[in-house]
Amino acid sequence: MSDSMTIGLIYGSVRQGRFCDTVVNWVLSELWAESGVRVTLIDPRVLRDQPETVDLVKRQIDEADAFIVVTPEYNHGYPGALKDLIDSCYEPWHAKPVGFVSYGGLSGGLRAVEQLRLVFAELHAVTMRDSVAFANAWSQFDAAGNPFKPDTARTSLFLMLRRLKWWANTLKNARDIRPYEQAA
Ligand SMILES: Cc1cc2nc3c(=O)[nH]c(=O)nc-3n(C[C@H](O)[C@H](O)[C@H](O)COP(=O)(O)O)c2cc1C
């Protein structure tokens, strides 16, 4: 039984000048030292700008053992481009865990996350109860992209990550023993 895994780190925003880059870069910097964790960046901009890359995106999702979705909140929901990316395939999401890092105004993107839970349930994915939320996100990071309260942010991220890794390993082994498709 191996503890190594690939985490698909998914951008939620495709907006020009998106704050998403700051939050994704922070998550990446925190994952850097995690032993046995490979990270694949999955960006809905690629799919939007080059729809012919859909097979590449599918393969990235297929090869990942777990996902972290970094999502903003737009009008109490999640961005449409993120939904397009999620809808680009079906089976590759099955029996895999999904964690969230959200950001936005007062609610820190939590309403977007709650909606995404419903979407991922339809895809046979398991969402993590624990998440990271940055309320008024633009006031939480300095100009270099570092959180003003790194310990608080890190504590939330690593609680979510420990549980994500538990599910990732458990489900990876379970899928190896018995393909999820047999559970119909
Ligand atoms: C069209 C639009 C709608 C928004 N609606 C909300 C909202 O409902 N709740 C909230 O907390 N923030 C809202 N915001 C603020 C965004 O969450 C914030 O600007 C965030 O940085 C957007 O992410 P991005 O810069 O990565 O695209 C909205 C922003 C935009 C552009």
Task: Please tag this protein with its features.
globular, 6 strands, single chain, 6 helices, Rossmann fold, binds flavin mononucleotide, six-stranded parallel beta sheet, 184 residues, alpha/beta
Summarize the structure.
This protein has helices at residues 20-31, 44-49, 54-63, 80-86, 110-122, 150-177, and strands at 5-11, 37-42, 66-72, 97-103, 126-127, 132-134. The chain is α/β, with parallel strands linked by helices.
Characterize the structure shown.
The protein is of the alpha/beta class. It has a single domain (5-183), classed as Flavodoxin domain (Rossmann fold, 3-Layer(aba) Sandwich), CATH 3.40.50. Helix content is 41%, strand content 17%. It contains 6 helices and 6 strands. Strands 1, 2, 3, 4, 5 and 6 form a 6-stranded parallel sheet that branches. Helix 1 (20-31) links the parallel strand 1 (5-11) and strand 2. It is globular and about 50 Å long. The mean pLDDT is 96. Flavin mononucleotide binds at residues 13, 15, 18-20, 72-76, 104-107, 137.
